[in-house]
Amino acid sequence: MRTVGRxxxxxxxxxxxxLALTACTASDRxxxxxxxPSATAAQPEAQxxxxxxxxxxxxxxxxxxxxxxxxxGEKPTITVPTGCTPQDGLLVEDLTEGTGAEIKPGSTxxxxxxxxxxxxxxxRESSWDNGEPFQLANIGQANVIQGWNEGLIGLKEGGRxxxxxxxxxxxxxxxxxxxxxxxxxxxxxxxxxxx
Length: 195
Fold this sequence. Notes:
This protein is of the alpha+beta class and about 200 residues long. It has helices spanning about 1-20, 125-130, 145-150, and strands spanning about 65-70, 75-80, 90-95, 110-115, 120-125, 135, 160-165, 185-195. β4 and β5 form a beta hairpin. It is globular and about 40 Å long. The termini are far apart.
């Protein structure tokens, strides 16, 4: 009788567990949770973290080492230099001299831009991809990074400018997936300048 009692108890336990499993909804099962990857699902390739990237080394980069291809009025491509470190301070270099109105403190402008980051040599964003220039008012005091408020002054309509922005004039604490201390590289086209 004791053997029968233990067997019956084991069966009752198994049946209870089976009933509990069948009462689960699809969303309760680990393989169907939206935030839980299944063992057979393809995993996305992991992006390198700041710790994975080598520290820039070498002498300070020369302006000519920042390669920009593409004609003014078309989306440029930035090639970030290697074998050198970002320079100290804000680097401002006209790649194409504009012939129109000049950006002065307080000006309003329509600007196309591409942003790359130095350390990971990645292009981060581009207004060209949105199809519309970026509208910016009150340049010099605008609600943008200090590197833009300082670096856009003097750019003429129709011109293209390279801005290499140190982190203290960009995002010293980082922003979104831009790491703290990152040097920002912009190529900015002045589409229209007013004021």
